[in-house]
Amino acid sequence: MEESVQRIEPARLVDVPETISDAVAELSAASATLGNSLHPLTAANLADLVRLMNTYYSNLIEGHDTRPRDIERALAGNFEKNEERRNLQIEAAAHVRLQAEIDRLAARSELPEPASCDFILWLHQEFYRDAEEPALRIKGMGREFLMTPGEWRSSPEHDVAVGRHQPPSSTRVGDFMRHFETRYRFARLGKAGRILAIPAAHHRFNFIHPFPDGNGRVSRLMSHAMAHEAGIAAHGLWSISRGLARGLESRNDYKAMMDHADMPRQGDLDGRGNLSQRALEEFTLWFLRICIDQVSFMSGLLDLTTLAKRLRAYVGRQEIKPEAGRLLEEALMRGEFERGEISRITGLPERTARRVFNDVSSLGLLASQTPKGPVSLRFPVDALDMLFPRLFPET
Prior knowledge:
Layout: H1 18-33, H2 40-61, H3 68-75, H4 83-107, H5 117-127, H6 133-136, E1 137-140, E2 143-146, H7 173-183, H8 191-208, H9 215-229, H10 240-246, H11 253-261, H12 277-301, H13 304-316, H14 324-334, E3 336-337, H15 342-346, H16 350-362, E4 366-368, E5 375-377, H17 384-387
Antiparallel strand pairs: 1-2, 3-5, 4-5
Helix pairs in contact: 1-12, 2-4, 2-10, 3-4, 4-9, 5-9, 7-8, 8-9, 8-12, 10-12, 11-12, 13-14
């Protein structure tokens, strides 16, 4: 008997409980104001930091503790000699690069349908574009094969069990994903419908488990793209991966809630699909509350007044003149300034002001695209503990 694509139904919520409607409204409102007070250039540089954070927590979910400094070195092309650590760095660099491309496409209104088969296959192919053979070799359950990036599971050797869950057989993945694309197509959904589709699609994608490996990472990148198209991404200034990794009650929340949403229908009062309607509602509400928690967290970190205070405090701990703080605040408020303004901003003589500028630039806090171009604020890894407390467990 052929395995039916209806196995992932209900794919979306039809009768939305009031608690979930309220959470959708709260998330929409909170994300609309995140980063509004920031200069667009400062916000763009902060989005670079959020990509680093998203990558760190996405890796952490997979059980890989790739530190921010390791990711930063990977982005600069400095890879470890150890094969396992190098492979993790390559994956981290790929995640940052791919999320940056998603953000770029979203900014230009060029993102494809985020739940489309073409886009998801592209995500997988691009994520593993630079992967070395050991990272593509799949072992276990008495089989070994080389995964091809950007291709669904398609043969019996690709069949897999994920904990207690048995995903659809490999020969049916293509059909399941075409049904998935139809059910989560954004073109026919309003804003609330798009927001509600994100958690449901996140779970149902992993339920199908369409690739031999990399499904979790691809699902989180897909959710990031969906957040852009749903109008809640706030220009990339918050990360779903941090919330999923930390949970609301404990770090085990994500795994437990994903497992809970796998529950089959529990009687006549639990919807009409193969899976539990109630479990999907509970997963959706949990996921939305995770999003709200992360938007609120980043709103606090990115408040102009408190960020300016942390910049001054950081300068105060360095062996440089306190006037350096004026340069950082100027960049924070204006986005960038010309090098010829350094003396005016600091109130110091030209030569002294230049020394202060060089000191703060050597810390990586100010930089420019060209040697003599205008400078803007940067956020080096060494400063993250103080500038953005609790962004990472430690840096």
